[in-house]
Amino acid sequence: MIGAQWGDEGKGKITDLLSRSADMVVRSQGGVNAGHTVVVQDQTFKLHLIPSGILYPDTECIIGSGTVIDPSVLLEEMQQLRDLKVSTENLFISQTAHVTMPYHRLIDKASEEKRGKHKIGTTGRGIGPTYADKSERTGIRIIDLMNTDDLRAKLAWAINYKNAILEKLYNLPPLNPETVITEYLDYAEQLRPHVVDSSLKIYKAIRQKKNILFEGAQGTLLDLDHGTYPYVTSSNPIAGGACVGSGIGPTVIDRVIGVAKAYTTRVGEGPFPTELEGPIEQLLCDRGAEFGTTTGRRRRCGWFDAVIGRYAVRINGLDCLAITKLDVLDTLPEIKVCVAYELDGKTCRHLPSSASEFARCQPMYHTLPGWEKPTSDCRSLDDLPEQALDYLRFLAEIMEVPIAIVSLGASRDQTIIVEDPIHGPKRALLDHNGSPWDAMTY
Ligand code: IMP
Ligand code: MG
User: 118 catalytic, yes or no?
Assistant: First the structure.
């Protein structure tokens, strides 16, 4: 299950829903930049690293190899769950995941400041610098935390090296190596019982024919390789990233489910063609409670962008979509969907790779009538107003992908299951009978 937009698509709720029939839930990328909000009865859980599957007592949850782990946040999150009487016994952490250190957080914030108007608008959680060290091959992995002697030597070297950067490049005070080492040795002991060879553990579950859900964090457009670079995160939130980040082969994945909001939001900097200003933006933000789970930042809001939707279908090989927060649009008299961009006087139907071209894209809209009726109590497609159904049909048609789930509110029961999202019917990817959008086919 992956995000089909810029993150915050409502994946927390959909994972929670899909976790019901999963024996194992795996996070493969990202770190504590993610924020998943799950509401169960009257309790709200805010999860950053731990898969929401943890709320089901028999589901095994894995924080995979491609993630970056900030132990202080992870341990806090585990404590929060235990305080709410949720067991963390079924939580497993990959020994090859990389560890976020205090210098990563400091460098993330300081480098954003240095970028000035070119800043990315990161979450400030040290994600980029942790992944940079992984690529530079100077990172600390969970397995290093497990070996005390090794860790001392590695950390002493790394802290020295980073102190030079903190002091000389950013004018910041150096970190005290002993303090950091003591802090991380303590984290290591707390995490030790949860550390495993996660690829092996997942493979055993595959051989036992268990149902496994790979839970994406962030979204397609934030992908390091295929997103709106440089305004992206430093991992691969697309479907292919699930294989790399958990150590499994692509042949074992049966189905890829995308999650998209019925409109679009983005948090952080970077171009956003369908972004709105004024009363409609305010309405989407208010009705959608569009404030970040991790940073509390107000999310930028705009109309649904089907160019991006089609891109997500292509890049991830989506089998179906879950559309979330449809109810947020309930009061609007008309609703727009971006079907193409105008770029320098020409119609552009595919996402441009250049950030400056993307910044010049003007949305070309198709306008649909709104339904102006509450939908959050609808429990089947038949309950939905005709215009709401037409809106969904339009989205499925233009993106050439079936919609399997429609979500109409935060709670577990505010959901319409259109077709079994896990077992199919598995349709051909380009199965779109007589779509009026033939001009857009490849
Ligand atoms: P970073 O991941 O903290 O480096 O931030 C890079 C970009 O990704 C920024 O625009 C963030 O706002 C965005 N981002 C990172 N994680 C999330 C998320 O979970 N939801 C939405 N945006 C995110
Ligand atoms: Mg989020």
Answer: no
